[in-house]
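Design request, tokens follow.
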């Protein structure tokens, strides 16, 4: 609830200008604005945080000013020209900020190089993040992506994704990158025709994960390739009952193919063949819905997002005007 948090931080700074924690209040206000995609206002607040920093506590300075410099780097990485990003990174690197904040900076620099498709520079930057750092699994996953872009052999990616899995995930984001690594390893072993290993990794991904259904598709076909017909059909049933058109269609096709190839059901061909045809027909019925989703106008979506951002910006300006005029 970044909007609510920002409102309270702004009110606190306005009503209690001598509050001893106002340096941190300003930093957290800037973070809220960043999370709300109000980048121009967030940049102003980060710079204000640095300019108005008055605490003579060295440790607090490393956290507050360093945090502001990292916040500026996060925003510049997405929206600024290359030189501005590099200048901000070097400013953070040479500052008195905590080493953990600087390692966050290396991660942002790695993402910046990935956006530029400078894969070697990205790998060099990301390798600066140590195993104990919370960004480590994300850095290792990104290194694997870089090496995929460099067309490295699939077997070279296995130890990198296993590094992701070796990290002791604690946050929801860390667990999700763990699941993505499981999915990647499942796909790699599938491509290497090692279906047992593929199933082992893919089965680790829970239904709560954003990539659950992607993993389910590969798991279903891995079981098909392994001739595990009952298990294959169980996966197909779950796929058919989801609300994602392409996964639904894949589920119908998977069941249809499994019925056709299951030699244990050869005595029941009079039942399985019509069922197989029926499932393929259902897949064809789903495809027009899928085509609709594939042809959504991205430009139209971007316009709607911009409209929402402008509306939030207007609310923030009104809120500050109300504060300045002592309005409730």
């Amino acid at each position: 609830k970044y909007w609510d948090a920002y409102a309270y931080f702004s009110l606190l700074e306005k009503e209690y200008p001598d509050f001893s924690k106002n340096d941190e209040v300003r930093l957290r206000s800037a973070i809220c604005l960043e999370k709300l995609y109000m980048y121009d206002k967030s940049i102003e607040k980060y710079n204000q945080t640095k300019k108005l920093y008055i605490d003579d506590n060295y440790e607090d300075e490393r956290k507050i000013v360093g945090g502001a410099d990292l916040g500026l780097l996060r925003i510049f990485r997405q929206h600024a020209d290359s030189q501005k990003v590099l200048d901000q990174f070097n400013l953070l690197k040479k500052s008195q900020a905590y080493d953990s904040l600087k390692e966050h900076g290396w991660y942002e620099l790695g993402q910046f190089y990935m956006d530029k498709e400078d894969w070697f520079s990205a790998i060099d930057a990301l390798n600066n993040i140590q195993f104990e750092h919370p960004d480590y699994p994300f850095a290792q996953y990104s290194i694997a992506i870089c090496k995929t872009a460099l067309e490295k052999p699939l077997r070279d990616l296995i130890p990198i994704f296993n590094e992701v899995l070796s990290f002791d995930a604690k946050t929801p984001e860390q667990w999700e990158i763990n699941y993505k690594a499981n999915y990647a390893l499942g796909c790699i072993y599938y491509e290497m025709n090692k279906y047992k290993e593929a199933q082992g990794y893919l089965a680790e991904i829970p239904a709560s994960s954003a990539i659950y259904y992607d993993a389910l598709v590969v798991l279903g076909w891995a079981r098909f390739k392994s001739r595990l017909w009952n298990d294959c059909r169980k996966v197909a049933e779950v796929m058919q009952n989801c609300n994602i058109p392409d996964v639904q269609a894949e589920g119908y096709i998977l069941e249809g193919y499994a019925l056709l190839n299951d030699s244990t059901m050869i005595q029941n061909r009079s039942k399985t063949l019509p069922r197989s045809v029926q499932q393929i027909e259902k897949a064809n019925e789903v495809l027009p819905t899928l085509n609709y989703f594939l042809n959504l106008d991205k430009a139209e979506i971007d316009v709607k997002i911009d409209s929402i951002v402008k509306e939030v910006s207007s609310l923030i300006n009104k809120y500050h005007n109300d504060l300045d005029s002592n309005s409730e």
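Comment from the thread starter after seeing the answer: thanks! The mean pLDDT is 87.
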